[in-house]
Amino acid sequence: MQRVVDLDFESWVCPVPLRDTPTVVMGHGGGGVMSGELIEHLFLPAYGAAAAAELGDSAVLSIGGTRLAFSTDSFVVKPMFFPGGSIGDLAVNGTVNDLAMSGATPLFLSTAFILQEGTELSALGRIAEAMGTAAQVAGVRLVTGDTKVVDSASGDGVYINTAGIGVIADGVDIDPRRARPGDAVLISGDIGVHGVAVMSCREGLEFGTTVESDTAPLHGLVADMIATGADLHVLRDPTRGGVAASLNEIARASAVGIDLVERDLPVPQTVRDACSLLGLDPLQVANEGKLLAIVPPESADQVLEALQAHPLGRSARRIGTCVPDHPGMVVARTGLGGTRVIGLPIGEQLPRIC
């Protein structure tokens, strides 16, 4: 007998359009408030006891005394090719990075394609080659996969799902609930680059300069951080929803406040200009090759040095501190001595960027 889930839309706290229009909208995929509401009020009640107790970018599983990280992600970026990358390398790097944020060494990936009828095989070939190259660079194997084709009215080129498995070494305990007051908040480099790179090649948008995506595998950078011996509390790659979404989720999971220093945020001028033109907040723009690290204050300099010694972390810096005040909230200290709240994005600022 099929189980019917009774959804009480009136009890939802998500803003319009969810209550008034109970259909899927683009904001549900944005990694912000609307995504969280969809998970909390639709998927979890529907899954019931089958749902995992903990939700994260990757699940940590113990099998025969070995801890494994398992993650899955889907990629629908438009356009499929953009400055600095493509949907192919993005699909590999995205799942590799989700595993790395648990402290895992990525080992195996699956690849599943949904192809629109009429897609040029030459484009699909470029995407597949990009995936193979990215997998070799990351040191992972593409071990299984699937392909489906939908009619020309039902898709939009190529969609890719990748799932990955990695191994977590003994002694590594990285969890979004481990942030503590006094911890330092570090970032590995410039923010907002990927989102602006994708937007820069969409019709009608020209920023006067080429911004290239930062898509890259981050597990080597994480390995160098772990090698310092520091007790890494939290790692997160700020993809959908950007730095704002990731830090808000960490603050809520750990029940701490996070204070950022606005002048220390590494926003390139090209990203700042593009966001100003589009009316966007750089902190809410996606990244695909950056990580946030929350570490004990006594380890901050050591971890920062390790970050800066790696090619992917040369521009790393400290951007803030975890505090006991305003738990669950992220604020930025402005240059004028005031503060502004960095909220969790409602929906999707830049649709189809990952």
Automatic annotation (TrEMBL):
Pfam families: AIRS, AIRS_C. Residues 57-168 form the PurM-like N-terminal domain. Belongs to the HypE family. Gene3D superfamilies: PurM-like C-terminal domain, PurM-like, N-terminal domain. The gene is hypE. CDD domains: HypE. The lineage of its organism: Bacteria, Bacillati, Actinomycetota, Actinomycetes, Kitasatosporales. InterPro entries: HypE (IPR011854), PurM-like_C_dom (IPR010918), PurM-like_C_sf (IPR036676), PurM-like_N (IPR016188), PurM-like_N_sf (IPR036921). It comes from the Bacteria. SUPFAM superfamilies: PurM C-terminal domain-like, PurM N-terminal domain-like. Residues 180-326 form the PurM-like C-terminal domain. This is Hydrogenase expression/formation protein HypE.
